[in-house]
């Protein structure tokens, strides 16, 4: 057994404890004065954003400084090695821009609301997707070929010498733009800014799915969801597969969402920074996702036949949806009645079916509304044809107090469906003859101008999914 030199051991222990301060286990919080600086900006952000080229880049070669406030955060994993900023408002408004940085966990240094100084000397800037990007040149690993150079990330070695943290944090409540509706932010001036949208909810196709769902609009390792406001305006909400809340389930509720506006091509994309930015706490609202079409030449007649021969037959994208004499109004979902044909016979069609999960709406309720002079009219009939029948989807009403282009649900409706024979039982795409509905005689006390209303009601929220295809032809009023 070896002997230990006690004197040497004590000396070594003293030196070690002095180096790591083991004589005091209480660690004081570092002073922010050692971590932040106070510099003077001599240039405005707009001096660069207004000059940023959309092709190529410009490199700045002067000792100039700009100041801005951080808006984004990589805390939640939706932003990666990039910081979004907003310029300081000096009375002339603000402008957003971004800086890519080859470093992660940037929120621990540059949290939202933190004012920073940016030393521009040697940095390059460009305009891409309507956003100014400031960074260092990336040569695509071809140093002898400058033609493929582009603005890229600032090196993790140099970024702290370029982006200088100030000692001032104005707080994100002072910079967030709120409350706003979706249509208000579909503007390049909001890109890279922090925004709070009110009265929004995810579309049916996303409800119950994960924030990152590879089966639903999976583009570039992220899922593009759609949210809507109460006016039916929509915007993409993009969630990365690396988001810390990527596996969480999307709520069906309504509320507010805070995030950063970005743009890719012509598409505006809204990016929440963390799960905390998504505050859906209110009951889901009834939203008209698709405006009523047609109705530009409503005529109240007591005798007519509509066989749809004068309209363009086609697919869901090419067949006529806008009928001047009628109103085509999806109350729930976004699917319209449209004109199609088979063996030269034209008719209108509606179905909740969609083979792509991204297009499978939870609820579809779509109305085809026909004006009628009930004083002059005595009866009505029509023909129907069904395919891929998964349950009854068609109802027929009349109404005398429906107001054109208002919500059908606000009107008094009389259900007359049981008076008709409606096609049923066709489980496949086999074409069977149209079925005559039979004649319904209007009540003698039904007078004045009003409407016959055909209602398709189905969707994927039902069990099993109600996706029957229904065709209507030869609407006759006598």
What does this structure look like?
The chain is mainly β. It folds into 3 domains: 36-172, OB fold (Dihydrolipoamide Acetyltransferase, E2P); 177-282, OB fold (Dihydrolipoamide Acetyltransferase, E2P) (Beta Barrel); 293-477, Sandwich (Jelly Rolls), CATH 2.60.120. It is built from 4 helices and 29 strands. It has helices at residues 6-20, 46-49, 159-162, 182-185; strands at 58-59, 65-70, 82-87, 96-100, 114-119, 124-128, 131-138, 150-152, 163-169, 177-180, 194-202, 222-229, 234-240, 254-264, 267-271, 278-282, 293-294, 304-306, 327-332, 338-342, 345-350, 364-373, 379-387, 394-399, 414-415, 435-436, 440-441, 449-458, 469-477. Strands 1, 2, 3, 4, 5, 6, 7, 8 and 9 form a 9-stranded mixed sheet that branches. Strands 18, 20, 21, 23, 26, 27 and 29 form a 7-stranded antiparallel sheet that branches. Strand 3 (82-87) and strand 4 form a beta hairpin. The termini are far apart. Mean pLDDT is 91; it is low at 1-34.
């Amino acid at each position: 057994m070896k002997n230990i030199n006690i004197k040497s051991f004590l000396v070594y222990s003293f030196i070690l404890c002095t180096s790591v301060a083991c004589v005091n286990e209480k660690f004081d919080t570092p002073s922010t004065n050692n971590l932040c600086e106070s510099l003077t900006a001599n240039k405005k952000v707009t001096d660069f954003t207004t000059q940023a080229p959309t092709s190529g880049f410009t490199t700045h070669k002067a000792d100039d400084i700009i100041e801005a406030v951080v808006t984004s955060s990589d805390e939640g994993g939706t932003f990666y090695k990039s910081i979004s900023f907003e310029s300081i408002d000096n009375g002339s408004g603000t402008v957003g821009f971004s800086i890519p940085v080859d470093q992660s966990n940037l929120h621990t240094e540059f949290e939202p609301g933190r004012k920073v100084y940016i030393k521009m000397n040697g940095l390059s800037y460009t305009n891409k997707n309507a956003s100014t990007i400031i960074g260092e040149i990336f040569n695509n690993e071809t140093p002898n070929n400058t033609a493929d150079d582009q603005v890229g990330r600032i090196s993790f070695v140099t970024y702290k010498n370029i982006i200088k943290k100030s000692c001032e944090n104005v707080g994100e409540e002072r910079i967030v733009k709120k409350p706003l509706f979706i249509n208000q932010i579909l503007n390049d001036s909001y890109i890279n800014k922090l925004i709070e949208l009110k009265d929004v909810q995810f579309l049916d196709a996303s409800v119950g799915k994960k924030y990152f769902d590879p089966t639903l609009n999976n583009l570039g390792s992220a899922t593009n969801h759609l949210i809507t406001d109460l006016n039916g305006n929509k915007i993409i909400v993009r969630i990365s597969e690396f988001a810390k809340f990527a596996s969480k389930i999307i709520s069906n509720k309504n509320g507010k969402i805070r995030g950063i506006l970005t743009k890719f091509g012509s598409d505006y994309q809204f990016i929440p920074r963390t799960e905390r930015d998504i505050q859906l706490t209110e009951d889901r609202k009834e939203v008209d996702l698709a405006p009523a079409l047609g109705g530009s030449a409503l005529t109240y007649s007591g005798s007519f036949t509509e066989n749809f021969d004068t309209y363009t037959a086609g697919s869901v994208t090419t067949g006529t949806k806008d009928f001047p004499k009628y109103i085509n109004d999806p109350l729930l979902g976004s699917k319209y009645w449209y004109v199609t044909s088979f063996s030269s016979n034209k008719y209108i069609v509606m179905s909740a079916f969609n083979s792509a999960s991204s297009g499978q709406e939870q609820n579809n309720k779509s109305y085809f509304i026909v004006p009628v002079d009930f004083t002059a009219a005595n009866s009505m009939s029509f023909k129907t044809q069904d395919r891929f029948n998964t349950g009854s989807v068609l109802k027929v009403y009349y109404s005398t107090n429906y107001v054109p282009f208002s919500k059908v649900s606000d009107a008094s409706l009389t259900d007359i469906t049981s008076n008709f024979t409606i096609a049923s039982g066709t489980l496949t795409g086999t074409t069977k003859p149209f079925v005559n509905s039979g004649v319904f005689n209007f009540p003698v006390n039904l007078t004045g101008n009003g409407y016959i209303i055909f209602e398709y009601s189905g969707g994927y929220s039902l069990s099993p999914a109600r996706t029957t295809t229904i065709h209507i032809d030869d609407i006759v009023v006598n």
